[in-house]
Amino acid sequence: MASSQSGVGLNGITPVQQMIASCSGAFVTSLIVTPFDVIKIRLQAQRTPFSKGKCFLYCNGLMDHLCVCENGNATAWYKAPGQFKGTMDAFVQIVRNEGLKSLWSGLPPTLIMAVPATVIYFTCYDQLRAFMKYKLEYDGIYVPLIAGASARVGAVTVISPLELIRTKSQSRRLTYKELGTVFRIAVVQDGWLSLWRGWGPTVLRDVPFSAIYWFNYELMKRQLCKKYSVSEPTLMISFFSGAASGAIAAVLTLPFDVVKTRRQIELGELDVLGKSQSKLSSTWKIMARVVNESGYGGLFVGLLPRLMKVAPACAIMISSYEYGKSFFRKINQEQEQLKKAESQTSTEEIHTDGV
Length: 355
Description:
Largest sheet: 2 strands, antiparallel
Radius of gyration: 24 Å
Mean pLDDT: 76
Shape: globular
Structural class: mainly alpha
Strand content: under 5%
Low-confidence stretches: 1-6, 71-79
Helix content: over 70%
CATH architecture of the domain at 16-34 and 112-337: Alpha/alpha barrel
Strand order of the largest sheet: 1-2
């Protein structure tokens, strides 16, 4: 039901409030998940040090960061690996020797790109879902699927040029002026569409994930709310529904994630070698290569690490977002009730004066 309060949308909160809720959710997710992946990268670097020109992929649950080493470990954004016996030992040594803030050494690129992408994505999803439900009067079970897929296409399209710039800036040490020159040269040589290179593989991975995720999340959330007789999801309902739906989507879309990872690494290595991006392999060629090398099982490599990353990240993000929306919705309802009470008081005073 639409609210009479100025600026409040069909779902009870304003678009700005939705943005704030999604932004806070992305920030909380980044803060919690980033240290785990920093430790994982440090352990991996210890076992197999990254040589010049090689890439590694850092994933913190919100987005992937492609990192290219120019001179061993010296110029990478993370510090050279120490001698760690395991995860807990790495945690203790990093905090003791480098300080607590080193556990968040991958946070800046996330806050610069992943947070705006998340804000666009979640806000568009809620707006599309509310539009279909209240304006088009369609409240079928496929609404979350359609809204989720559409919102992800929009977010990927907006962020793709920034993703290209970020990859180039990480592959070589470039000033802002040099980065602008690279940007202009890419447009002159290959046209504006060159800024959306990598859009296809990203969409193939993220759009099915988004559709599957939102479909299962809304379904689980509705059933759990009905089971526990609550009108709005509690923090635990959102957390469990987000984790379960994220895990399902992660399993079903893993082959596209494998292809996306290989393509990103290939892109980074071409940048280091100074080769044209036209040499990039197509999505289907990469998939065929993986099958030829490792069989169909190769498309599902890294299932456990992906589940360990995606499920908690989805749970933290959606529960933070739902809590933020619930918080703002409650404030809007209280303000609306206050306005009604003031309006009623004014009407009674006018009536009394007239008598």
